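Protocol step 4 of 5: obtain the predicted structure for the target chain.
Materials: sequence only (see below). No template structures provided, no constraints applied. The aim of this step is simply to have a reference model before the mutagenesis design in step 5. Sequence pasted as it appears in the construct record:
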Amino acid sequence: MELMISTDDSATQSPETTQQAGYSVVAFAYNEERTIGATLSSILKNADSQLKHIAVIANGCTDHTYQIAKAVLEQQSPCSFEVVTLALGDKCNAWNQYVYQYLPECAVHFFVDSDVTFTEQAFGKLFQQLQTSERIAVTGLPQSGRNLAQYTELATRYSCMFGNLYGLKHDFLVRLKQKHIRLPAGLSWIDSQLTKLINHNLSADKSEYTHQVTFLEGVGFTFDSLKPWRRHDIRLYLNRITRYKVGQLQERYLDPLPFVAWPATMNDINASILEQDLTLKNLGKMVIFLPKIKQRLAKNVQLKNEA
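Step 4 output (structure tokens):
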């Protein structure tokens, strides 16, 4: 870990000195200086008195994400907070660091991205929805774009998670830690594997897919639609579809493995994909993005001792 700041010491109290009450929110950010301020302000605006802790995990940032997040939380946060900066720019590693090193004692933990805003009182509503449910997770639904009906169907039929906003019960994360399950660094389609992890309820053999995700229609997050005339948005779109395709190639290797056998990094799997899986049959129309796919797969992740 390179740097951490906190308004008080409540986030580091032992389980024996705290009770599971309320919820926390953790925002993951990679060079999000343009949006992190709006995201944090929206969290605070749409949270209620049950909000107990906020964390920002700035991973691999080379811009002013950390400074902006610190300033916003110092000025606006009504509860304890911390801003952590990690050298490695990898969301899975950041997720693991939060769960294994910084997890506060709250009943529910919300995970959000730092380029979205949230619907009115989203966190209080989703917290109440999950607390009164026997399910493990709650997801916010995307409220922007042209596919709102499709998003609702995915959540209803398949218990899909949307990584921009979801909440997990504390007990589930405790069980995950006891089993030493971590998200592999370098994983490209995180939402898909999290959906499986949750709906299989950490089971060793993945034999039964149960519906463990709840949601509320009309409650979730909003985002700015991509504009085809903006260079930044074109690059973002290309990176996004490349990431999804690489994730589809990776899941062929991950799906047969028990969650406890997930590798620390995707390096070896990516090397196998590069060697034998980049065929026209596997890529289809995505073959036109072959150079970007190869570039993503060739990037080795070097885990750092940041805790």
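Step 4 remarks: Residues 68 and 149 are 35 Å apart (CA to CA). The radius of gyration is 19 Å.
Proceed to step 5.
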